[in-house]
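Record filed here:
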Amino acid sequence: MKQRLFWAVVLLLHAGLWVKQVFLQHSLLQDAHEYLQSAHNLITHGNWYCADYVAPFKPEFFTKRPPGYPCFLAAVEGLCGGQNKVFFAIVYLLQNLISIGLIYLLTQWLKPAIQTLTSPYTIISLLPGLALPIYANLIMSETLLSACLFLIIYYSFQTTFTNKHYLLITLLAVAAMLIKPVFMPIAILLPGLWLILGKRPSYKPLYSLALLPLICFFTLLKINQNQTGYAQYSSISQINLLHYNTYSLLIYQQGTHKADSIIDQIRYEAQQNKSYAAQVQYQQKACSQILQSNLLPYTYLHLRGMLMTTIDPGKFDYTQILNIPHEQNGLYHLNEQGIKRSLRLYLNPLGTWLILVAISKLILLIWVGMYAFSKKEPLQSKIILVVIPLMVIGLTGPIGASRFLVPLLPIWYAIALKGYATIAHSTLAAN
């Protein structure tokens, strides 16, 4: 695909969705309402409670959304004097500029690899990238997190690794963990891992920066403990444990009706405890017992979810941005009705498009495998490129939704294109 056509498509997609969201039919996800409420509460009450600020308060809403993305929204809200039309226009504009900037950096960094692509492969490989303009035009934190993760990789691969690069990588890791809780364990490990891999600042006192994510973690832990009485980085981990990890296993083994009954029972028994800390601990214990006693089937569901994260075509993303009614996700139908009945979800025009996107994601996954097993690529480079996606995908577990891959898409493309270029060069050499 010629560069002018490529950039025309990129700009048209971002601009078209911006116009749709600002002037036509505005789409807001459930998560978006929580982010917006969190941002408003930051301005009016000084905390990031992500629901209406009225009693009785639910403790989990004080910690569910970390403050990173709400701070971004609060800054724009303060500038606009409220969450009005101008507010949404500016938020989406800024996110679009970030998304376009990431695509530009990616194409410049990987220009030699991109030049090995022929037109059919170029078009096929672009399909999953449509998620970038979609999420740039939603009140979701994926675009900001995507920028943090890609810049960490981008600065790590600079020819000369300087003190400034290590400082930026550490600050970006902290920003990432303040945007999405799933990145918290990675952010804590990352600066130390980079030191082990030889990405070290020449000024040795900067080694202490490796402790910055840890300091951020304990600071937020203390703030949350003061709010709720329980030292918890984010309640989303507990919510996922009960409503996704455990619930997915129960549906798979016993069906929806029985699964709903067990989850309701766990929640009811937990609420008999007076303190929030005791309620969380009860839920954690109950869920852990279920998962540990069914370790093999859960492991299968977890691995299946990881695979689905990489190849899920993103039906949810398209239905939300296009304001199309959304049924239950594919994994729900797969657990409940099996493969044959699940395929009926794709017997329509959107379904046909989603099949093409799934095929293109599978091709990207193959290219990622080519890079991972290439003997020509240095082991250090492989570890730096692969460690972040692998850990994030692993932490998402059985949920298996494409939106969890969105923050990783620029890195995913970097790995895939490097993998394809390696094979292309080998083929040319053989001929």
